[in-house]
Amino acid sequence: MEKIRLGKTEMMVTKLGFGSIPIQRVSEDEAIAVINRCLELGINFLDTANGYTTSEERIGKAINGQHEGLILATKSLDRTHAGIKSHLKLSLERLGVDFIDLYQFHNVSDTETLKKVLAPDGLLTVAEEAKREGLVKHIGITSHQIDVAKEAVKSDRFETIMFPLNFLTYEGTDELLSLARQHDVGFIAMKPLAGGMIDDATVAIKYLLQFPNVVLIPGIERVPEIEEIAQIVEGPWEITAAEKRKMEQIKQELGTRFCRRCDYCQPCQAGIPISDVMSFSNLVKRLPPVRLYTGKFAAAFEKAIDCTECGECEERCPYNLPIRDMMKEHIRRHEAGRKEYEAQLASR
Ligand code: SF4
Ligand code: SF4
Q: What is the DSSP letter of 187?
């Protein structure tokens, strides 16, 4: 698989990396099978985070101490010196390695937090000290906010930037990509499939392959998904006229008001799996009714009516989605769909 130089880190990273948010949603055996398949396919870049619950531990179990040839990236959302230190220690333990190749400040999406990271005795000093001690090889940052991401790149204090990039959310990103090139900051594209909202992997991945020095890290839940994407990466990269039309069609259908399933809105004080509820309009196109109206999704919607409207989730959503209003809309649609499904069952 083709490798690219990840900016000033000088690390040679496969163009296709592995995003590990979705392996939290499957069983441990399934998660390990997905990671092993990625390694068999030649992927050498695995990205995880302290905040992705079981993800680091599952990667640790899959690689079983075999760090050689692999580039492991993780991150911390903590905003205190002691918290980052303790997250780093935990990441090393969970991954079962002596050092992290790329340690990232996770979701720095407002100016105040960036200032806190960059201040003379700021949070960055913790990662820099870890780098001197050999616990961390390189330092990066992740953001969902374009102006903050640009400032981070211009600061010349980070070796990589991770930012959402896909044909739905491209606006403004060309300037960030060009700044990253000028400052030799490695660019890692998160959300290549817009958090699962783009269900045509071919057009989504081919679109990103046109950016020469960008690593893409689709979040992968199941083996066939990574096999399909790896095949697209290995295949012809030119985008056909029909694929261009498909992209336009998807853009028009989705607009900008959709959930990327990043789960940054969590924790919800009422225990609501917000992204499951918020993804209903997309899932309804892909899943059979039995999956939507029984089991996990039915339980998510039952839970959703416990929403206290506290609004905390909306403060945390990097896409400023009106979660409470959108959930109400989805609850209504789910309820209507469920009734229809039950009526169909009863008439058989
Ligand atoms: S507004 Fe509702 S969904 Fe959001 S955090 Fe509060 S209880 Fe949870
Ligand atoms: S509601 Fe916002 S924060 Fe929550 S999963 Fe969706 S996009 Fe992410």
A: E
Q: How far is the CA of 268 from the centre of ligand 1 (A)?
A: 5
Q: What is the DSSP letter of 216?
A: E
Cα(300)–Cα(272) distance, rounded to whole angstroms?
7
Contact of 159 with 140, CB cutoff 8 Å: yes
- Which of 142, 259, 277, 320 to probe ligand 2 with, by most ligand atoms within 8 A of CB? 259
The mean pLDDT value for 254-265 works out to 81
Determine contact, residues 17/24, Cβ cutoff 8 Å.
no
**CA–CA distance, 106 with 162 (Å, rounded to integer):** 9
Phi, psi of 138 (to 5 degrees): -145, 155
196-213 pLDDT, tens digit each:
778 899 999 999 999 999
Task: Answer for the pair 215, 186: CB distance below 8 angstroms, yes or no.
Answer: yes
pLDDT value, residue 171: 66
Sheet holding 45-47, edge to edge: 18-19, 45-47, 71-76, 100-105, 136-142, 160-164, 186-190, 214-216
pLDDT tens-place string over residues 287-346:
778 888 988 889 999 999 999 999 999 999 988 899 999 999 999 999 999 999 999 889
> What are 331's two structure tokens?
């609850």
The residue to which tokens 């009526």 are assigned: 343
Q: Which atom of ligand 1 is nearest to the CA of 327?
A: 3
